[in-house]
Amino acid sequence: MDITISNQIAKLIQQITETGEWNLDPDDLKSIKSICKRSDANVDVAFDYWFVQLRKEHAQIRYSCVQLAEQLFQRSHRFRILLTDEFPLFISLTVGGRQRSLPPPQQVAAKLKEYTLALVTTWREKFANKFRPIAIAYDYLQHNGILVANQPTLDSLHSQNEDRANRQNRMQPVYERRLQQISNESEEYLSIIHENLQQMQGCFEILLPKYDDGSDIDFEALMKGDIESSKAMTQDQNNYKEELRSHGLGSSRYKLEIVISKNPVADEVHESKENEVVFEQLREGYKVARNKHNKQLTIWINSLGRMELQNNENRNILLKKLLDVKADIIDTIRKSELLGIQLPSKEGEASDDNDDEYLDELFEEIDVPSSSTRARLSRSKLPPAQRIFPLAFEPGMEDDVTYIRTRLFSETESIDEQGSSKDGNSSSKGKGKGKGKAIMTPDKEELLKKAPVVEWGEDLYYWDKSDAQFNTSGIERSHRFMGVGEGTNEIPDQLLEKLRKRTIYYKPQMPQNLKACRAPLRSGKLCPRRDLVTCPFHGKIIPRNEYGIPVNSNEEVDNNPSSSSLSSINPSASTAPSEQKQQETKDSNDLWQDIERDVMQQANQPLIELNKKKRKRNKPQSNLIDVRKKKETSYTRLQKKLDAPQTRQNVEDAQDYERTMKSRDQQMNMW
Amino acid sequence: MYSFLKKREHGSLRPRQFVRAESTKRAYSLQLSPRKEVTRIHRGSVQSIKVENVEQRYMISGGGDGRIHVYDLNTPPDSDGHVRINPVASVSREQRHRYAVTTLSWFPFDTGMFISSSNDNSIRIWDTNSMTPACVFDLESHVHCQAISPVASHCLVASGADEPRIRLCDLKSGASTHSLTGHNGSILSVAWSPRQEHVLYSGGVDGTVRVWDIRRAAACLMSLDQHNTDNSDPLADTNKAHGAGVNGLCFSSDNERLITLGLDEKIRMWDAYTGRNTLVNYGSLWRNRFQWYMEATVSGSDVWPPLLYVPSDDQQVLVYELNTGRLSRRLKGAYGRVTCVEKRAGLQELYSGSMDCEILVWEPEEDRSSSLDDEHPSDEDAWSESEEE
Fold this sequence. Notes:
The complex is a heterodimer of chains A (671) and B (389).
Chain A: H1 3-17, H2 26-38, H3 40-55, H4 59-75, H5 77-85, H6 87-94, H7 106-127, H8 132-143, H9 154-207, H10 219-224, H11 231-246, H12 264-268, H13 276-306, H14 313-338, H15 346-362, H16 405-418, H17 425-429, H18 442-450, H19 458-461, E1 478-479, E2 483-484, H20 493-499, E3 534-535, E4 539-540, H21 561-569, H22 572-602, H23 634-643, H24 645-669
Chain B: H1 2-10, H2 15-28, E1 30-32, E2 36-38, E3 46-51, E4 58-63, E5 68-72, E6 83-85, E7 87-90, E8 101-106, E9 113-118, E10 122-127, E11 132-138, E12 143-148, E13 156-161, E14 165-170, E15 175-181, E16 187-192, E17 199-204, E18 209-213, E19 220-223, E20 246-251, E21 257-262, E22 267-271, E23 297-298, E24 307-311, E25 316-321, E26 327-332, E27 338-344, E28 349-354, E29 359-364
């Protein structure tokens, strides 16, 4: 037996059985047949490899094996002898027995069983006289109720298979053409849609009020009607109260009635003469988006969804793109509906058209700069009455008249703006206004640019003191034992060093309103959990549409207001340490590799490849279903979390601590 | 074959040697018989098969359904050349055993009588012609096996039941004569010595194999020891034949060797006279997990080197070379645990019964040259021309 032929057979058989397709690859099959035809020894080898494949715990492989067996059994007498010798095992591997069930995936296993039974029935008619094992197997299957009466015959199975393959073959070029067409059309069309969407977005920015901190109104929250989570509402109320209180009206004797309308946006934004143009444009965009773009996208998405292509990659990419755009359009349409924009009625349409033409003649399109239609609330307010001395780190402190920082800061700023040179000590010394006129050297100016601006404190008082005196009263004090001190009454250096330090209270800033997870639940609702970054059940919180389907796509993020608000929630602090750590390890790796390279060069040795083992063999593309992959559930995700080394470490630490405490307590009682 | 014939005619090969050569060749080429089949008649497992030794024509089979069937193995073939062996007589539904038949044996000198033991606590003696029980012994517990001496002038049936004593039932009087005590726990297998008519071998659940002389008052002669320990006491408590129960006993064709099958999945061969372990290693490929009697058999006296056929739990019959312990073949074909094998020594045929109700016929491969006349299409390759490269 030639070893190369043996290897060739092994490769071919593995290849043909591990494609995961319903039909055997005709080219491979042909080459296997031609090799087997040459000699019976080749058939022996092929049978061995075939049986190895048949034993693999995968229904798809077994299905392909049975298909191959059908081909060879029909042709080779040697194969018949070999197979019938192993018939009991063959039956138990392909039909299953009392102790042995068929391997996953289940739906393929059912097909496999059906197919084998049909095959055995056919073989029995043809070969049972010569090969007793087939007759025994048939009897066994019949008497154990495995062979049911209305079993599909082999011919019907084959014709089914052929039908399926034929249909697929016929439709393949049609689908391909359609895909090409859609991708071409959509390319042009998408740019138009994007333009329209951007225009509408611009209109929203113009129309909608802004808040003091400059953040956009939370459209998402408004659309949901989720009043509590709306930052706008709470802040609005706060401001209102503060405003009242700052004017001295805040008192329990007054009764305040706050009416919250259902559609706050429509309440605040009205169509007026000023913004008529904007509204007009918005209406136009809305009409197009709703009547034309949305419909066209729906048609495309439907026809793409129906396609059964051999490689779905292109289709999937296109489909995803279209779906994203569609989600955007729907989003925008909802927004404009919130603003009270509706499709013009039939009667009004004619006049509208006239107006439009007239307007088109009169006005050019101008990029309207985004500005707020609403006056900002002034910041200069009286201090809140509720507390006498707010703490330094509290935001209310800035409004305190007795508090120096804001004024100082603004002063220095204003001085800088005037362009005159200022004393650098003004910030560090606290009150540098008097000496501010002193002329400064250019390098000091440089330093001043870098110098941090900090509030005045005790530490700054001691900052440049080299010898601080204490007990400057002149009265001598004598200690009971040590008597009168003879020192210089100076604060020692290390103490001075300590005095120069400053305590800073760090206040972690919790985001005010967390976004809900909104992943679809089995009950049909959306997940109401509000977590910082990740929901323990549904993973990372991502923007989702009203059905809970994620709408994220990397290139659209910038246009999407919802996702931008998400990124503002994500605290950068949480990601920073891990990045830093990665950087560190990378650095150390680089260093290690540098040293290694040097050493190897000196020793005239080839470099050791680190990633040699990690590199996986490139397996041929296969459609085999991965049977080992476990289904990912919320349970497994939680399990993974719990099994993480970090968590384990924490638990261990806690246990250790508890143990030590316990033993300490015990020891305390033993005396 | 023809060269052997020629040599025999020339006188350079003695007839005995010729027979031996030919039967050995046949015995080593066993395969599932393509023409002969035993009709599937049992419902439930086939527990025991026996071929009578007088003319090797009739076979009895006992099943898990409590029924016993008699077959004529010389059934003429059908018109299409197939031999379908149907039972010629069966135990009627009323008279069958209430529970599974465990072992069967023919009366050694006549086909008119056979003996069966069953889980319904009885041993029955049957009249083959009327298929009715002539005599019933009630043993008050499950009978694992029974045995009748193939050579003895006495007509004693030894029984191994769920009790620690062996009872000897006398066919002449219809009552049990005496009992042999010595085993701990139930007795799984008994066998009479094929040479000495008063010597009995028995294997119990305690892993011992005991040799008895039924004439003596202190009947137990010795207990076999797998390690061949040198001690003066042949009945030492430490003597163990197997690590677990012994559920099969059979003799080699020259009657000098005793083969025991243990639940520890070991096969051991002993010198039947001295009781010493011959230390042949049969490997660990054999499966035996159930406390049922296992009917193994050794090929006929003309086959040399002799073969040992052992039924196995993994749905196969294992064929060992008896003297070396080498696994020669696996006879695959059954779809359930194989419970018994029986040889038809004259024709080198083998019958095996299994849990899937089927009795399989294994026969030597036909000479291809002799069957040239009836060429069947399924014998040929059917490659099409287009499959050439």
